[in-house]
Amino acid sequence: MRLSQSSSFKDYQGNTVEDPRAYVEDWLKTHPKGRVFVGCDSKVRGDLTKYSTAICLWDIGRGVSEIHKSEVVNTPPDEYTRLWAEVEKALEVAEKLKSLSIITVHVDINSNPRYRSHQLYDASIGLITAMGFEGAGKPHSWAASCGAHRHCQ
C-alpha cells in the first residue's frame, strides 16, 4: 500500500467514472424509484490508512450497484480522528449529490454504547441530519460496513 491522495471513482468493472454526479443522475433517470446511499470505511495498515467511499444505488427489488473510490493517507493519530474522517469523506461525496435525490449517509460508527465508536455516534448522526441528509450507523449502515468495506481491505 502506497500513499495516494484522491482517486477517481470506479464502477464494478474497474472503469473510471469521471463524473460521479452525472453517473448517479443518469442512473436515477432509469431507476426513478431507486435510492442513493453513501458510505465510507477505512483500514489501518501500519503507518498508512486506506479510506474507501462508496456510492450505493439501490434498485428496490433488484439489488444494489455501486461506484467507489479509495485513497491512502498517513494514519491519523487516533481511532476517533480516523472515524471522523470517514464521516467527513462520506459527507463530502453526499454533498455533491444532494440536489439529485434523497441521500442516506451510512457511517461505520456503532449505535450500541458497548462499542468505543459509539462516542462519535450522536455527533456524526447530528451532523449528517443537520446537513440535510438521512443518516444511519451500525448495525444499519450497510453502505459503509459492506459497500465501502470491501474496497478498503
A few lines on this structure:
The protein has helices at residues 20-30, 79-97, 121-130, 142-152; strands at 9-10, 16-17, 35-45, 48-59, 63-74, 103-110, 134-138. The protein is an alpha/beta fold.
How many distinct folded domains? Answer: 1
Structural class: alpha/beta
The radius of gyration over CA amounts to 15 Å
Query: For the residues shown, what is the average pLDDT?
Result: 92
Measured distance between first and last alpha carbons: 11 Å
List how many beta strands DSSP finds.
7
Largest sheet: 5 strands, mixed
- The outline comes out as globular
What does this 3D model show about the protein?
- This protein has 4 helices and 7 strands, in the order E-E-H-E-E-E-H-E-H-E-H.
- It has about 150 residues and is of the alpha/beta class.
- It has one domain.
- The radius of gyration is 15 Å and the shape is globular.
- The termini are close together.
